[in-house]
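A protein record pairs a chain with a discrete description of its three-dimensional fold. The following entry can be read in just this way.
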Amino acid sequence: MTTSHRRRLSELTGLTPLLSATVCPDPLAVYRELRDRWGMVAPVELEPGINAWLVMGHQELCHVARNERLFARDPHNWRLLAEGRVAPDSDLGPMMFPRDNASYVDGEKHRRLRAPVDDGLAGLDEHRVSRSVRDTCAALVDEFAGRGAADLIADYAAVVPMLTVAGLFGIGVEDGYRLRAAIIALVSSAADSREPALAIESILTEVMGARRATPADDLTTAFLRHPNLRDDYEIQQAMVMTIAAAAQSTMSWIALTLRLMLADPRFAGRLWGGLLGIDDALDEVLWRDPPVANMPARFAMVDCDLAGTRIERGDALILGLAAANADPRVHTDDSWLEVGNRSHLAWSVGPHACPAQRVGRMITRIAVETALRGLHGLTLAVPVEEVTLMPSPWTRCPASLPVRFQPR
């Protein structure tokens, strides 16, 4: 361990920006370099002057994610935020500033606010959801199938999850598009959030009023009836959290799977030859490029050591899900040794693990299958090296995926 490894996190300079691990062609190389220098817990730069610890070890990440008394989710415990060192309009705000929903609180309050989401998702009629997803995907493909070209992100992967998840709440297609635009605006700017917040409130208030008058078999009705949600504000926050998180992660999973199946020679050749199934590609993405590569954040509640690294109270820790998946202690390059290995951390672990894994897989599988079967001769319209990625430290989702195919 180097002397600098024992210095305070805020004193370290010249650190690797976390963004470099998500926008580069080979993120595993970045993780290897960080491990070689720092070990399983490495200091990284979130933005100029704002540092955090990136937890890259599988065992270490599980320890952090499962121990909320030592590593809290509530951003009120972030020292740099409490000291006013993080600007109010920081790009970190949408993912790392406090919000009053289950994703950003701990303990009993987290369990109270999380239960309606778990219960609502468990009560879904999966056959009905499946039919709805298939109808949505088929309708979207029909819109551009005659062109012979499309952007499978803007035209498809970014739309399917939002319309599907909105539909689970009884929100119609037109309001689904409005809600998508408002949520994107809300999470993209911490400084100018009033207008999109009001738009979201208007849409959700309307559907809540409709379901109070006429209950239905949807998540809005389930949330309205759930005893854990005490007022309309908590109901709205639960709805926003579920819609935003499910839509964003599912969009990434769809996009990353389509890119893998179209660009990776192993998958492209074996897929069209009938030797490989869509589920193989879905699982490969969860290992290689999970929908969220780096999950913010946990905040140390006490001074402690983690894998030989001195963590101080108030330090921010980023869960490096993609890096932990590549931890050689749990994952190898030997396909025979990997048969049945489900130890990936794509959905995180512990109290804040993703609650929508099952429905997310359903939506993603149907979306990928519909695109591949409905667009004959589907190929990338640009070399894979030219597929741009969203400039985010949290995901490696393609910003666009231009394709060509035989027009109908």
